[in-house]
């Protein structure tokens, strides 16, 4: 199996300069000053080089795009970090303060909801405006040339505009925030699962994502804006809830209580939901999405906050879009429904046809994923330097534009201008007519989906549809995974709506006078659902999203069934596309269930051993040695007392902060303790050991770790089975688990990767 | 605070004959034969007296209806019971067998879905037929009497029919399955939370629930059939998945693998979802309901099965109901939509009106809950013997009927017969007219809700509505908690639709010519949602249920917001009605979050101590002593080795089975082990210690517990904080947690009730 994964969407290459610290011959001699590598990353460590200033525009090297290994991903700490300081703070807290924190949680969700809706409005309107502008320029050029046989001119103009726009997206993505590539859904999924994907919730990623998706959609790539909107919502949530931006080095004295992985995760969940709500106008779908796809930590209070967040996001989107559409305040205006309002219903005997379409959707979805898989592997092998990545994007853009242009002239279908089409897409058609194919290419992709759904039976001839869908399928396969922000929902829906409409036309041909076969919209919808379900393999949230986005509930039963069938058929061949990309990038994501038939694997086989431990009261020299040991770069260490008994667990980050603030017993009074605020302050970017300077004298001092360690971490017996360990990890979002023997002595430590390795073995 | 709770819906009184075993002076002398009390129940124990044959028709005593104490509830074991036998079985399992078990899981869900739909069809049709029959008899009598001034005759006939029907329901409930009283939702909630409510998923409960709800709805009580349908679905799920019925003493050699609490819970989840899907025609709502209200153990694979189950339930309901309505096969026939199809939309400026209605809903919901609370406390104090319970039901029935009859004649509103009303409800009206009030009382309650939603503006005069809603509100308050199966959704919707329609009429009066004020249906719908939200305090699942039950998506935003507002306003005053009843019954249910400000409570304060332990290899006499100790009736015991080191955990039920099968070291070969099948076979009704006969000789034998104990149960340090313990319990569905000290010695044991006690202290 190829060891290179699909990194583009999941990796930020500028963080890849992992330089292992030089080997230290004699560990007991190692002192902190020996370590001067600026961007050291640990195998399960804590560092990001966000502070190192090498974020942008470093030269292209093979090194910079080297694929990530599983070991490069860090885990997040979804377990509460308890210690004496925390107990003291919580005990001091009055009921009023506690209420205040609750209210802040709601307030943050309100902010996330409203801003996410606003961002979606900005993206929407920008795309509409840019697309209209582009169309105006190109159609004018065509009009001028259609009689004077200079058709290469409009083609060139079109290609130039598209390539220009797409290049902006590519440059931003490649050089500012590579993690902004792709839809963002796999990244958010990883984040919520407990894996830290570097930079995934940073402001520069947000900026890249928003500008990039506007550029790439307007630039005519076969991408949608929905996935990136979800990612944007998640970043906003993380940013707002933390009250700080690392990119701008700004920290507000707000929401400090929430500066830990656990709280951040909850808000990111809400942000993702708000993103879905804004992208599809589907607030319930948003809540479900964030539960189905992302969260394994269900909690009713949290769900209500997510729900509020989704609702507000919908309201804010609908309100501003209704203003834009000159229906100010009419929040139920049907023009706000993403895929147009569906009327009509279906007959019971059409169900088998729908089910058959589900099978087709599953097959085509699996084919899409398989082709994309091959392309991704090829891309990871050969398109490795940054310049090439940008070039690839431009090539795809040029090819897309050329194909589209050729299709417009190949497909000679002209329809009379109706009231729906008031724009000038005449091309080679007679006066008073428009080119059908052009209506698919010169409008924002949502409008194309709407056309395929709702335009009357004769609007698209079968040949037009076939000419459209075949190349589009392959271009879309090629496009997903490029170094630009790119959503997958709209391409899948377009493909599905196209072949769905084809089937609808067939049905009408079979029974031209039947009432039920007059309505092609339902076939287009079912096709779109089947294709989407076969590609991404979600069910419940997709059902609700489609119901909300079409404003029609009566198709819920067939939609559900079709999505389920498409998933089953697709799963027979390969994974869903998001899972595939996560898998290719070797992210140590934990599945929902323990690996099957793993009951005979026990803790002692799973754990990393021997575990490096530290003493409750410890020589500074020893701590430095442990922290600098290149072979044991865990993110935390079990703490033992003099007799070697297990006393608790301390995080690497905590030790670093203790060292930096020189909390040495010899230098301070017995009651001198660091405040919890100091620890919160350095979250989430902990400094490397190298910036800690400890003198020779200080090396002989002692640190009393007791106030800072977690006195009662979760432990497991060495006899425990893997499923038992798995359940503990999964249910509580743990990062590490101490394995103890019958004498309560530490015998090893299990990390997320240890578990992942075993689950992973079973798979190809 | 009153110590008697609302037991009616949550308790099965025939299980209350808890006779504590006679005090045994010298514990070391105690032998198994000393214990002959047949229905002994442990404080956290395992026994039900289902086998004792005293289920029905025992004489009324105060004892039999004595309220349950928290100590009487047992916990369920949602943690996998691991031991050497289990490891051996799982290790032997081939990938093919594993697949086979997966397929069985799906198959069971298919069966659950289809049968739940069928049961819903039976309930629906029975209610429709009985109601029609009743109406025919009564209207004929009225017709005869209206001119000859013998109106007392039809009233008497009506009262007799109603009281007769309701008495059937009451007798069944009181004497066969008291747990079938009420809606069943609180009971299912408790079950899924991990508390064993006796008899809640038994066949006799199912039978009582189905017959009882048909009788009580047709008998004209202010109840709905939706809650009981959900309960029925859950019982079906438990029955099918276990392949056995205890009531009929039938065991099929099917699905044996699933005979444990963990698997049963998953299927009950699916059954509840199928119930919602069938009750409201809301499959997505069903999935959400079972997640929001019930399950804290989210798992994607499980969710898909629940989803399938819901879909099939909907299909089977729609299919058979479409046949019944002579629209065979037309699954999209709008007559299948529970509350009728909603057309129309709303204007942005109506939102504040809706929000205001949300506030009213919250207030009225809180009032409803408060009154019901008082009535319940009164009822628990004074209506304690069985005979009285039946009498109360009959009184309520007579009062309901009398009030309804009076209202029909008081409200003189007559409407001309339209195409909707083709039945004869003339009463005192002119020929060709019908009595509006009668149309609310002589139709199944769903149809009354539909009338209030959809009948044109003038159908109900404001006075008619006021005369209807005021008494109905109080009768509904009185009715919920009676000893009959009774759903709460329909009464709440009826009340809400009534006052919602009133507001709609007001709006129309304010602006008679406005387009937006012509549609009273939307106000009735929002009112219904607000009232329901204010009473039961669910949000997400209710939103989706209402959307699916009205077939209209465009109200989703206002519905959501109104439900949220109603919940907030209601929560300001008291708990939701289900939570209230759970709370009153002192069920040790665990909330979603640890109790606030509990960080300074530690394991050593929470745990029960000293923990009774048993040895790995143990004298039979000692085991008997431990099992019969009345002061330490836990459901499991930590196991220690010779040196007192903690070695694992063994369940009380396992020890009992070992005793019963006389697995004594002296009597059997070294490899003689009980099969796992033996343990599964006795699930879930373990026998009491009294039926185990151990001779004096055998008392001196040894039992080797090692193959049967769980070698690696979850443990926690005595220093752990309550939130930390809570999270472990909640996330993993634990029943007991061993507390160890730094030497890994057992110092105590934490059970669900220990945790519940602390959370409970904070509340009134």
Which helices and strands, and how do they pair?
Two copies of one chain form a homodimer.
Chain A: E1 74-75, H1 84-92, H2 95-145, H3 152-175, H4 185-193, E2 195-196, H5 203-218, H6 226-242, E3 244-245, E4 250-251, H7 261-280, H8 283-294, H9 300-324, H10 351-382, H11 386-410, E5 414-416, E6 433-435, H12 436-441, H13 445-454, H14 462-479, H15 489-510, H16 520-536, H17 540-550, H18 556-573, H19 577-584, H20 603-606, E7 614-615, E8 617-619, H21 620-628, E9 636-640, E10 646-651, H22 652-660, H23 676-681, H24 696-699, E11 702-704, E12 715-717, H25 722-732, E13 736-740, E14 746-751, H26 752-761
Parallel strand pairs in A: 7-9, 12-13
Antiparallel strand pairs in A: 1-2, 3-4, 5-6, 8-11, 9-10, 13-14
Helix pairs in contact in A: 2-3, 2-5, 2-6, 2-7, 2-9, 3-5, 3-11, 4-19, 5-6, 6-7, 7-8, 7-9, 8-9, 8-17, 10-14, 10-16, 10-18, 11-14, 13-15, 14-15, 15-16, 16-18, 17-18
Report what the structure shows.
- The structure is a homodimer of 764-residue chains.
- The first copy, chain A, has 764 residues and is mostly helical.
- Chain A folds into three domains: 18-53 and 595-761, CBS-domain (Roll); 100-333, Clc chloride channel; 348-584, Clc chloride channel, CATH 1.10.3080.
- Chain A has 26 helices and 14 strands.
- In chain A, the strands form six sheets. A three-stranded mixed β-sheet of chain A has the order 7-9-10.
- The radius of gyration of chain A is 28 Å and the shape is elongated.
* Terminal residue distance of chain A: 8 Å
- Broad CATH class of the largest domain in chain A: Mainly Alpha
Q: How many beta strands in the DSSP annotation of chain A? A: 14
**CATH topology group of the largest domain in chain A:** Clc chloride channel
Mean pLDDT of chain A: 81
Most extensive interface: A-B, 90 and 89 residues
Side by side, the strands of the main sheet of chain A go: 7-9-10
> How would you describe the shape of chain A?
elongated
What oligomeric state best describes the polypeptide chains here? homodimer
